[in-house]
Amino acid sequence: MHNAWNRWNIILMFLMLNAILIITVTQITNKYFHETTPLIHKLELHKVARLRSERQRDRAVLLFDFDLDLSKLFDWNCKQVFLFIEASYSAPGRPSNRAVIWDEVIHTKEHAKRIQGEKVFSDYEMDDFGQHLKGANVTLKIGWDVMPYVGFVGKHHQLKFLGNTQFEMPTSYGRWF
Predict the structure, then answer these.
(1) Would you say domain 36-175 falls under CATH 2.60.40?
(2) 95 or 60, greater pLDDT
(3) Distances (CA, A) of 52 to 55, 65, 68, 87, 127
(4) What is the pTM of this model?
């Protein structure tokens, strides 16, 4: 009647169909029945540590304070959360400039309960290839990517500005430690 290859094909197709069904149900339950808004208690610029001009471009290092609770993001399908702080500004000819200045990977719900930092140096410098950072209005935002065990990576940004997240860069080059 049916040879062995036909029977293996039927079994494998049945298993693949069930796996697709389980993944679809997982995505639907995570999207509609899961809280994805963390508590952002504080995000403030402490000061601009350094603003310098080097080879026709501006570079800036920032110090900032933050206090977060990302434990609401963790559920049974959350493997880890990639957390980052982003600085955005506009420049002539380029209305939208964004730079990630700090990041961290959070693996456990216990670590996500209280993420704090005071006078934290930015991991990465803000670079502008046109010397437009001097005197620019900069906005700090918190973003996070939820990396699930099964499903698609979700990318999120904070919806409202908190604390002193908008500031103006110094109008002269130098160090301010």
Answers:
(1) yes
(2) 60
(3) 10, 22, 31, 17, 10
(4) 0.78
